[in-house]
Specification:
InterPro entries: DinB/YfiT-like (IPR034660), MST-like (IPR007061). This protein is mainly α and 186 residues long. It has a domain of 120 residues. The chain contains six helices and two strands, in the order H-H-H-H-H-E-E-H. Strands 1-2 form a two-stranded antiparallel sheet. A hairpin with a 4-residue loop joins strand 1 and strand 2. Helix 3 runs antiparallel to helix 6. The longest helix is centred in the last third of the chain and has 27 residues. The radius of gyration is 18 Å and the shape is flat. The two termini are 28 Å apart.
């Protein structure tokens, strides 16, 4: 017997999808967003939602479950990591001293992702708070070509980097979720 979970999906229309198109909250009616900034924000919103969907319905133990040794990666670790990087992106926008790390030393976001409900709740609260703070900081820069911070990063580059970070980690979340309970999907 194998302890690997059987692959499954909730979708009935397309068996390789996470949810049926009518049930997928990322699907919207109407035309694509107008303009570059609106398009970037739409992609970011959808990747953020994808991460939450990949974590939905799991308990603290499942969220904290590590992939394969020696990796420390888990779904909960990804949530904590993205909270940490949202905070760090605000450091890119300013000349001030950097904000302190949320979880301490390097890799503490993954190392501290333990199977305790209080840790799970704190991770989601941290992520929501840091996303909102970074969104608010970036709203001060409506011109994507503007440069900010001591390194002169362009706002466009920062926005694309945010999307890339979430997209990469959502791909990892696909595999992590499948290892936890066999659920597959786009």
């Amino acid at each position: 017997m194998s302890d690997r979970p059987a692959r499954w999906t909730q979708a009935t229309v397309y068996p390789d999808m996470w949810a049926d198109p009518d049930d997928d909250p990322r699907n919207s009616e109407g035309p694509d967003p107008e303009g570059e900034l609106a398009t970037l924000l739409d992609y970011l919103t959808n990747y953020r939602l994808t991460l939450r969907m990949k974590c939905a319905g799991l308990n603290a133990e499942q969220l904290a479950r590590r992939s394969v040794p020696p990796s420390t990666m888990s779904l909960l670790g990804l949530v904590r990591h993205l909270a940490e990087v949202e905070r760090d992106w605000r450091n890119w926008l300013t000349d001030a001293d950097p904000l302190p790390k949320l979880y301490g030393k390097r890799d503490a976001d993954f190392d501290g992702a333990v199977a305790e409900q209080a840790v799970v709740d704190a991770a989601y609260a941290d992520l929501e708070r840091e996303q909102a703070a970074t969104d608010a900081a970036l709203a001060e820069f409506p011109d994507l070509g503007e440069r900010a911070g001591k390194d002169g990063v362009s706002i466009r580059s920062l926005m694309v980097h945010r999307i890339e970070e979430y997209a990469r980690h959502c791909g990892q979340a696909d595999l992590l979720r499948e290892c936890v309970d066999g659920r597959v999907g786009q």
